[in-house]
């Protein structure tokens, strides 16, 4: 059984983990901060954007792009640390982001304002091209959450959370999406943040079931990591790519008037070593 360790604690709603260089970058949606942390737990705030959600990715040249949902903008961090408008997305409940090797940026919107209690509506995926133009490339996603592009740049995988599945699309030469299909059904799990793993597999996080799961195309479950709070997203990284980073926090009912859905200080970044053999990892505090 692998050991799960705490790298960062005392945060709010933590999301969007991305390994880059020799550090993990993640977002604290509660604080409106994008944070870098090294493997010794030293943290640095690298950007401040008051947005909820607050998801990030990297362009092929390494620059950070940030979804500022409240502004309806996709921001780009320049080498001097300043933020510039990469594209005007328009008004929507923007959520997660993924970038392919050609610089195509995919941003999804959940379709309704969950935090205000608005009635459910299906969401969509938009494409931002290098010239800053924005167009819809996929509709009817039941609460789109995490997204990832396969290493060959050929496929976009989207967490279709309310359908309990991962949905895949072929990426065409102009960045459009085609050949929509169910990549894997996830049973009773509502997949949230995802990352691509070796051997045509995906890790997904699940808030309600407090776990991360590695699944093969078609639905075979290979590994699980169970913890004591909701798992919002996960990413592979570390020097050899075999460390799974998990952003997690306690999740309460949306109507909790005392603490809100995420009690302050319960956000953590956790790590565990993973490999290609089926196993189960558990942490209960």
From TrEMBL:
Residues annotated to bind a divalent metal cation: 15, 145, 192
GO terms assigned for molecular function: hydrolase activity; metal ion binding
Cofactor: Zn(2+)
Catalytic residues (UniProt): 192 (proton donor/acceptor)
Pfam families listed in its UniProt record: SGL
Keywords from the UniProt entry: Hydrolase, Metal-binding, Zinc
Similarity comment: Belongs to the SMP-30/CGR1 family.
Name the record gives this protein: Gluconolaconase
């Amino acid at each position: 059984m692998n050991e799960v360790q705490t790298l960062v604690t005392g945060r709010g709603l933590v999301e969007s983990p991305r390994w880059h260089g020799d550090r993990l970058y993640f977002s604290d949606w509660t604080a409106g901060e994008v944070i870098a942390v090294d493997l010794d737990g030293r943290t640095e705030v690298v950007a401040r954007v008051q947005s909820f959600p607050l998801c990030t990715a990297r362009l092929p040249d390494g620059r950070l792009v940030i979804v500022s949902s409240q502004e309806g903008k996709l921001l780009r961090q320049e080498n001097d640390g300043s933020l510039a408008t990469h594209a005007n997305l328009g008004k929507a409940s923007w959520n997660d982001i993924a970038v392919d090797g050609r610089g195509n940026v995919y941003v999804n919107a959940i379709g309704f304002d969950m935090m205000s209690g608005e009635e459910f509506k299906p969401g969509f995926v938009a494409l931002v091209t290098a010239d800053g133009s924005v167009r819809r490339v996929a509709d009817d996603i039941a609460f789109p959450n995490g997204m990832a592009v396969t290493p060959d740049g050929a496929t976009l995988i989207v967490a279709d959370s309310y359908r309990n599945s991962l949905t895949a699309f072929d990426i065409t030469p102009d960045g459009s999406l085609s050949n929509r299909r169910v990549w894997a059904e996830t049973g009773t799990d509502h997949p949230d943040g995802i990352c691509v793993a070796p051997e045509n597999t995906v890790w997904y996080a699940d808030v309600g079931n407090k776990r991360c799961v590695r699944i093969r195309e078609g639905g075979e479950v290979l590994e699980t990591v169970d913890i004591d709070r909701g798992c919002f997203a996960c990413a592979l990284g570390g020097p050899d790519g075999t460390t799974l980073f998990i952003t997690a926090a306690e999740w309460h009912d949306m109507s909790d008037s005392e603490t809100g859905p995420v009690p302050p200080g319960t956000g953590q970044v956790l790590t565990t070593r993973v490999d290609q053999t089926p196993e189960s990892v558990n942490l209960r505090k």
